[in-house]
Structure formats: structure tokens, C-alpha cells
Specification:
With 204 residues, this protein is an alpha+beta fold. It contains four helices and eleven strands, in the order βαβββββαααβββββ.
Length: 204
């Protein structure tokens, strides 16, 4: 097994055509994944090549390949690896403003304690947020599970790519945080062997 997950991020301005309606923009964003997957895999990928797990997680027929997609208001990102693993990605803009009510509803007691004691830094909140969202995507869980119920105990952070135990299922996951192009994000994967995130500059 390779120990590297790859990440590519692109500005939404490069995906969405100027003058498009909101509906057209959403469609362009949805369709963009086929362009990316086709270039990553070196073969044309269409919606007919896609299937979904019982929980609605997409995968590609007959490919030893896992991917996850996320986008903020500014960027679109995809993470992938040539293995079949549970993989999740979430990104948020570092400029995002969040009120304390959302913080209280989102963070667990332990996370809120750290957030307050460390000066209520928005980067801390966004890391916790993307950690939870990437876990939800990796597991294909409902967002209604309750973000404040998700908590992770760090068991190794020697490389800053934390190995954690999830209180949700008592399993070990790798959480790989990153900051890129004014975005903050986390890649979550169900493999302790993977510990490297490779940033891809272009896909063509």
C-alpha cells in the first residue's frame, strides 16, 4: 500500500462560467468531478461509471481507487488514493466567520474547553469542523448525527498527521490537516499506514 494521499484544489472561478445562473453554477460544479477523475485515472469517466454504497458514498466501477470531494465558497478540492479505503475530505475558507452559537452546537465539551483555553482562535474551530466533516464523509454518515457528539482522542501526533481513536466506533483513523490557498482542511482515512499528503499543482 502506498502511504500517500493526493490533493488538488482549484478556484471555483475556473470552474464556473461567468454570467451563469445559480442553478447552472451548481450543475457545472457537479459535472467538474468527471473531468478531474478522467484526468487523474487517464480514462474517460462519466456518471455511468459511478456507483454508490448503501449509505450514498460514490465509487467508480472496477477501480482500486478512492476519492472524496469538498468545496468552500472559493475553492473546489479532491483527495484520492489508488487503494480502496474509507477516505473523507473537507475544506473551509480561513476567512469564514462563525458565531459562538454554532461553536457550542458543533464542538464537544473537550473541544470547547480547548477552543476557549487557546484563545478562541477561528483556525482551531475550523480544524475541528473539517475534522468532523471529513470523518462523516469517510464513513458516509448523515450530517444529522450531531457534530458535537463526534470526538477524537489523539494517540499519535509526531508528524502532525494525527492518529486518533474515534469515540463514534472506537476505531483508529488518520487525520491529516492542511492549509492551502487561504483554505483550511482535513483529510480523514481509515488507515494508520497512510501519513503523507501530496499536493498536486495541476491536473490536465
Amino acid at each position: 500500500m502506498t502511504n500517500k494521499i493526493y490533493l488538488y484544489a482549484v478556484s471555483l472561478d475556473e470552474i464556473v462560467q461567468k454570467g451563469s445562473s445559480l442553478r447552472e453554477q451548481r450543475q457545472q460544479i457537479r459535472e467538474y468531478k468527471y473531468y478531474l477523475l478522467s484526468n487523474i485515472l487517464g480514462t474517460r469517466i462519466t456518471k455511468d461509471d459511478m456507483s454508490y454504497t448503501e449509505r450514498g458514498k460514490p465509487f467508480i466501477h472496477d477501480k482500486n481507487f478512492s476519492f472524496s470531494i469538498s468545496h468552500s465558497k472559493e475553492y473546489y478540492a479532491i483527495a484520492w488514493i489508488n487503494e480502496q479505503i474509507e477516505l473523507g475530505l473537507d475544506i473551509e475558507s480561513l476567512s469564514r466567520n462563525v458565531n459562538l452559537g454554532v461553536v457550542k452546537k458543533t464542538l464537544s465539551k473537550q473541544q470547547r474547553s480547548y477552543f476557549v483555553s487557546n484563545g478562541q482562535k477561528m483556525t482551531d474551530f475550523l480544524y475541528f469542523w473539517t475534522q468532523k466533516e471529513s470523518f462523516i464523509k469517510a464513513k458516509a454518515l448523515s450530517i444529522y448525527i450531531g457534530l458535537n457528539r463526534l470526538n477524537f482522542e489523539t494517540i499519535s501526533d509526531s508528524t502532525q498527521n494525527n492518529l486518533v481513536i474515534s469515540e463514534y466506533d472506537n476505531q483508529i483513523y488518520r487525520m491529516i490537516p492542511f492549509q492551502l490557498y487561504g483554505q483550511i482542511g482535513t483529510v480523514c482515512c481509515r488507515s494508520s499506514e497512510i501519513d503523507t499528503l501530496g499536493i498536486v499543482e495541476s491536473i490536465a
